[in-house]
Amino acid sequence: MTGIGESLDELGYATVPGLVGAPDCAALAARWDDDGLFRKRVVMQKHGFGRGEYRYFDYPLPALVQRLRESLYEELAPIANRWRAQLRLTPEFPATLAAYIEKCHAAGQTRPTPLVLRYEAGDYNCLHQDLYGEQVFPLQATVLLSDPARDFTGGEFLLVEQRPRAQSRGEVVPLAPGDAVIFAVRERPRRGARGFHRAQLRHGVSRIRSGLRFSLGIIFHDAA
What we know:
Elements: H1 4-11, E1 13-16, H2 22-30, E2 38-43, E3 50-51, E4 53-57, H3 63-86, H4 97-106, E5 115-120, E6 124-128, E7 139-144, E8 152-154, E9 157-162, E10 169-173, E11 180-184, E12 187-192, E13 195-205, E14 208-218
Antiparallel strand pairs: 1-11, 2-4, 3-6, 4-5, 5-14, 6-13, 7-11, 7-14, 8-14, 9-10, 9-13, 12-13
């Protein structure tokens, strides 16, 4: 994952092409109706989150999701600790996901947060931040499971950064099936004339114009 840290520092996000192979993307999307995999289903319009649905996996996570969560965490923990130091906070993220999950559970955050999201024509996801308790790992990932050249139109991944005393900056991140986008959950350090300051970020998905779009969300902190 060469260049991930540099892109995250500059833009607040980075892409990883082809992180998940096509057969695994199709297999995950096909298990949407497998109730035994999931702990909760959310209909977004009932809560003002947008339109569409998502389902949180239950423990134990599917093997692929667990592997991705573990390997991505190990790559991102050093970046997360560096960001905390740049914001004059104490680095607090251990080297392994297992050790971090222990911290989450000790804080009362015991429910897994990886999820699958499903959008049909007309659906969208409002700009938001995925915060579930006191423990917040500052980076997360989304993997596109569907093919925008075949399965759907619209549905672009959106990222908006609010800079202090400046207008917000929006970004559309194009993704192919199996690509991942890694991005800041809530804030990132941004270098200014007087050192680093906090830039707030929110993410979402634009309106699906046609078809069906599935994605996998990998959040590293568990929920209370």
